[in-house]
């Protein structure tokens, strides 16, 4: 394993330790839902500036065959763990601007260190942009948190359900592609096939999440019908992408996985929906 990897693994372990501390000290369910929402916000930002605008590239040297997939691993360490967990820590412990500045300085310092170590390359992005963007991100985290204290319904319930569900579907979708190269997408947006695949996957998982939460919110008494519709929807989506030559399947188990794993996401999303409807804090207290 390259020395590059240890830096990213170390950052991930620090983040997981902090997340465990949050869950131990605070309401586990509410904190976890808050982390999920902040992950989706980070994913959305990263989709724009990293995937489509080419802001920077990570070099953890964990995936050997495709440099862009390797870069995605670094992006996950930052956007699935480090930044969302920090935002939830600051919010749940109601820490003021002193600690926010400490964390902003920490992330700016990590960026600078990674650049100096040549394990992170900046293109048009600057560390100053991170330092200016994080205060906004932390304020959004603080604004969202109170909504998780009470039962939700209507459009706000749907929005937060989407934001809690999307990280699951997006992560379960892209990780096998990066590790096993079991499929490629060819929309023709970028010359690098790994970059092209990642870009299309960022659209795919949003569309897939909309299918899942639509079925979760439909008031059908026969739950098995929803599961059938869900499976059929992803099967048809696979056929359409395959026949249009956007999807290139490389491994035999790929179609089965991508048609069936949304069933697990549906189960997770339905559980989250109930928690949001009942109120995450009340649900935990009554458990």
UniProtKB/TrEMBL annotation:
Keyword tags: Membrane, Transmembrane, Transmembrane helix
Coiled coil: none
Transmembrane feature ranges: 6-24, 31-53, 73-90, 97-123, 129-148, 160-179, 199-216, 223-241, 256-273
Keyword Plastid: no
The protein, known as: Uncharacterized protein
């Amino acid at each position: 394993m390259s020395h590059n990897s240890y830096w990213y693994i170390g950052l991930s372990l620090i983040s997981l330790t902090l997340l465990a501390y949050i869950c131990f000290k605070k309401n586990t369910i509410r904190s976890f839902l808050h982390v999920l929402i902040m992950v989706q916000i980070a994913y959305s930002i990263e989709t724009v500036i990293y995937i489509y605008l080419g802001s920077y590239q990570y070099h953890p040297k964990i995936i050997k065959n495709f440099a862009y997939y390797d870069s995605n691993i670094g992006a996950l360490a930052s956007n699935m763990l480090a930044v969302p967990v920090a935002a939830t820590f600051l919010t749940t412990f109601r820490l003021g601007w002193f600690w926010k500045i400490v964390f902003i300085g920490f992330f700016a310092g990590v960026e600078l260190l990674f650049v100096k170590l040549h394990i992170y390359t900046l293109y048009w992005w600057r560390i100053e942009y991170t330092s200016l963007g994080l205060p906004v991100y932390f304020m959004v985290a603080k604004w969202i948190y109170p909504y998780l204290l009470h039962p939700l319904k209507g459009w706000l319930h749907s929005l937060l359900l989407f934001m809690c569900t999307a990280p699951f579907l997006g992560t379960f979708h892209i990780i096998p592609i990066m590790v096993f190269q079991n499929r490629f997408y060819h929309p023709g947006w970028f010359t690098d096939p790994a970059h092209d695949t990642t870009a299309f996957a960022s659209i795919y998982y949003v569309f897939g999440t909309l299918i899942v939460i639509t079925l979760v919110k439909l008031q059908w008494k026969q739950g098995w019908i929803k599961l059938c519709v869900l499976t059929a929807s992803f099967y048809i989506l696979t056929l359409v992408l395959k026949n249009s030559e956007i999807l290139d399947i490389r491994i035999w188990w790929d179609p089965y996985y991508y048609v069936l794993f949304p069933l697990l996401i549906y189960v997770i999303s339905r559980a989250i929906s109930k928690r949001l409807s009942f109120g995450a804090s009340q649900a935990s207290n009554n458990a």
